[in-house]
Amino acid sequence: GTREGDSVLAVAPGSTLDHVVFFSSDGVAYTLPIEQVPVSSGYGEPLSKHARMSDGAYLVAAVTTDGRFTPDDKSTKKQPIPTPHVLIVTEKGQIMRISFSLFRTASTKAGRKYCRLGKDDRVVYAGLVEEAETMFIATKDARVLHCEIEEAALLSNAGKGFKGIKLEKGDQVMGALQLTRPSDCLRVVNTAGKKMTFGQMKYGVTSRGGKGVKTSQRSGFAEILYPPIEVVDWDEQADDES
Predict the structure, then answer these.
(1) Is the pTM of this model over 0.90?
(2) Which terminus of the chain is more exposed, N or C, with fewer CB under 10 A?
(3) What is the CATH superfamily name and number for domain 19-241?
């Protein structure tokens, strides 16, 4: 179960020989051996037992290093920074990518920096790029921008990235969504409590750094509805491997 006010953010499957990487809103990633995560049916234990998280920081993603669920590192002459990459979006509209290879081994309690943040900025989205080629960025004032993931700065280590969306005063990025299939849509709840859907046909690909499309004059976005978390069927997994 979860404590009141808490909810499940991610499920990171893996064997006890693998690691799990926790990405925090303050731009620091903490890598823990899965065997150190307590086996528990209760509330679990706070990550602060294993990591020195800064005040007010919270988790934005958790990714397994298990090769059955996360692709192995791969680099080419043309692309020397190994894939898979982690796509990062900040509240003030910065976007960047960094190689997941930097985070595969256990970290100290201090963690490893994966993003350099400007004053009063924080990470609102971090996600492994696998098949997606474009993404939606959504803001509190109901702006939506659709751009190519390749336009996000590809960094060899933690940096500030490029401007993904230009924000009006008082606006902030709420999150992002990677788009893999043409049918993938951005779903939000607006400030009037209404669920809304934004498709890729109506909101076509533009270049990064613009203001995006103002989707409503009257209401803003209250919450992004991310696709439901998929839990691994371990029996099925065992059948696939046998």
Answers:
(1) yes
(2) C
(3) DNA gyrase/topoisomerase IV, subunit A, C-terminal (2.120.10.90)
